[in-house]
Write a structure and sequence with these properties.
two-stranded antiparallel sheet, two-stranded antiparallel ribbon, about 10% helix, alpha+beta
Length: about 100
């Protein structure tokens, strides 16, 4: 069994699918995914008219959800099940870039 394969309590094989990205153009910023994630993976981010992160409060055009702490994702998929826009990309574990 690899690090990204597991079994359910009943012994059924299960492979986690991790949150890789969120399409900001599609995201409504509704917060449903944020509410179901108990791992602090997501953050609500303010954007300006150009779709860039708004630096000043008066520049905020809208909010979108972003992946803030990808390394904390356990691959449960709860966020994808509640997303009304299906704007999230999920997949197998990937090495994270360390800044």
């Amino acid at each position: 069994m690899s690090a990204t394969h597991a079994v359910t309590r009943a012994g059924t094989p299960w492979e986690p699918v991790y949150l890789l990205s969120i399409d900001a153009a599609e995201c409504l910023g509704c917060g449903r995914c944020f509410k179901v994630c108990g791992r602090n993976v997501l953050a609500l981010t303010p954007l300006d008219e150009e779709g860039e992160v708004a630096e000043d409060e008066e520049d905020i055009e809208r909010y979108v959800m972003t992946v803030a702490n990808a390394g904390d994702c356990i691959g449960c998929g709860a966020c994808s099940r509640v997303c009304a826009k299906d704007c999230q990309e999920h997949g197998a574990a990937q090495a994270l870039k360390v800044a």
